[in-house]
């Protein structure tokens, strides 16, 4: 897909039923049929690699909008600022440019905080309002 669109593979985001696909996912493991649709989003910038992501210290988080269909599962390094996750969600949901607020355990998040600083764990939920 990246070569067809002329972009770096790191800028491609594939979504199936609004869940981010793993690069190792296969059609049979996803149980995709002929009528299913895989969405492709080209991100505006390549995420910056961090030491945590290289050492495998990553978290899989769920980001949920006000509507049930506005959920996105993302994998982020524990030490990466949340601003990357926030812009990733806005772009994937077609909400870039909208004023969005992100909350974890009832506390409003700033883009500067990291999952490690906030004590986030695997499969934690970040709520989005706006």
Automatic annotation (TrEMBL):
Any single Gene Ontology cellular-component annotation: nucleus
Keywords: Nucleus
Main location (coarse class): nucleus
Record flagged with keyword Lipoprotein: no
Subcellular location(s) of the protein: Nucleus
Keyword Nucleus found: yes
InterPro entries: NFATC2-Int_DNA_Repair, Rad60/SUMO-like_dom, Ubiquitin-like_dom, Ubiquitin-like_domsf
GO biological process terms held by the UniProt record: positive regulation of transcription by RNA polymerase II
Domain Ubiquitin-like: 59-130
Membrane-spanning ranges: none
Stored PANTHER family: NFATC2-INTERACTING PROTEIN
Protein name from the UniProt record: NFATC2-interacting protein
Biological source species: Vombatus ursinus (Common wombat)
């Amino acid at each position: 897909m990246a070569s067809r669109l002329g972009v770096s593979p790191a800028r491609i985001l594939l979504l199936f039923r609004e869940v981010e696909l793993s690069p190792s996912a296969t059609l049979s493991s996803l149980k995709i049929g002929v009528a299913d649709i895989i969405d492709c989003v080209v991100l505006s910038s390549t995420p910056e690699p961090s030491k945590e992501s290289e050492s495998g210290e990553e978290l899989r988080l769920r980001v949920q909008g006000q509507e049930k269909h506005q959920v996105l599962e993302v994998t982020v390094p524990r030490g990466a600022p949340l601003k990357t996750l926030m812009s990733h969600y806005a772009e994937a949901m077609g909400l870039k440019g909208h004023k969005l607020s992100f909350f974890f355990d009832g506390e409003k998040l700033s883009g500067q905080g990291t999952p490690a600083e906030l004590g986030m764990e695997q499969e934690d939920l970040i709520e989005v309002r706006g």
